[in-house]
Amino acid sequence: MKNTFKNIDEYLLLFSEDxxxxxxxxxxxxxxxxxxxxxxxGYQMPAFRYRGKPLIYFAGYKKHIGFxxxxxxxxxxxxxxxxxxxxxxxxxxxxxxxxxxxxxxxxKIIKFRMAEIDQKKS
Length: 122
Prior knowledge:
By secondary structure, the protein is α+β, with helices and mostly antiparallel strands.
């Protein structure tokens, strides 16, 4: 049976305090980029819209936090992921829960995605 969540707060309750803290920090960091970023649940995980378009998704797991910036968001930062030895695929990157979140890298990815959306709107 799939869990269904009405909002991100409900989603966060599934996790241990350690993981929940990281997910909350990630959530706050995303909102820092623009006051108009909207939250929603997409694909049963926390999701964020910028100018009405999907920006970023994330999900918590036992050993990592999945971060989903889309194919271009991954392709553009592959070198960074390889350098930091993060596992990644064509649409996601995994940040281990036993380390600090790479906030600087996350910020770069969010800015890249926002610029991508702005460019498509022009």
